[in-house]
Amino acid sequence: MLLRYLWGSLGFVGLGLAVIGVMLPIMPTVPFLLLSAFGFARSSPRFHRRLMTHRVFGPQIRQWQDHRAISFRVKVISIGSMAGGLGISFFLLPQHLWLIQVAVLALVSLFIATRPAPPPHI
Q1: pLDDT of residue 122 exceeding 80
Q2: For residues 3 and 87, what is the distance between their CA atoms, to the nearest angstrom?
Q3: Which of 6, 25, 77, 103 could form a disulfide with 85 if both were Cys (CB 3.0 to 4.6 A apart)?
């Protein structure tokens, strides 16, 4: 029973971070949705089902779970929003922190760009 509450908490924390990620260009959304789906799958079939059938986020979660794939559209939006956030942070962060951010986002962008596209039937 306690473990179920821990998994549920993980699901809600992931969902909260994903919602923040929708609003902030530098914060990812889908990795936190995947974390949320993972937690809800082990704690709440109802919340897991709602997340998996969400009209916007459900397909992205299923594409990743089923094929480890990211659609071209999502890749462009993700990398573009990270670049936009990086451009804004250039004016806000000290240079050494901005350079660290450049390195991290370059690696994340490379990871996203090299993921396969989902099969055409999805």
Answers
A1: no
A2: 42
A3: 25
